[in-house]
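[job 4471] stage=fold_predict status=RUNNING
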Amino acid sequence: MSGRLILASASPRRLALLAQVGIVPDEVVAADIDEQPRRDELPGALAVRLAAAKAEHLATRFSGDFVLGADTVVACGRRVLPKAGDEKRAHDCLRLLSGRRHRVHGGVAVVDPKGALHSRHVITTVAFKRLTKSDMKGYLAAGEWRGKAGAYAIQGRAAAFVSRINGSYSNVVGLPLYETAALLIGLGYRGSGAT
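[job 4471] inference complete, writing structure tokens
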């Protein structure tokens, strides 16, 4: 199936991850959608719904193309951790993650050139060491937490906090690469780098 690839995301991490496996979108366009969780919505359902909403939002504008949407949700149990917008919220997230396991839910959605929606849900379990006051103070001062789900970036300084990971590392960074590439190729995408 022919068609260009449109990445429905403003995330430089997702673009870099795709490039890592040789997939280069033809266009990158931020999808402006409401990302608030619905009442009693489970973290995995939220990740998939937001990924689908991003892809569908741009699919009408780019009909005949592949439109890829993705979302990452960090959760402790059923509790969805926010994207940290301020230092207090970041501190609260780190305190909650300290010394325990949490799950990172990745939602991936593709609207194919015929307009059909296809989605995947990927779960990675991450265990954090018990964080000291010094750990948290240093991490907060570095500012890597800004805008990150759960207030951390595993590909940065927070890597020193991770004692164990079970599942897709790239999912925690922002896009599960194996599942994304398999989904695109399975749908017939033959753009740059796809095999």
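[job 4471] summary: The chain has one domain: 5-186.
[job 4471] exit 0
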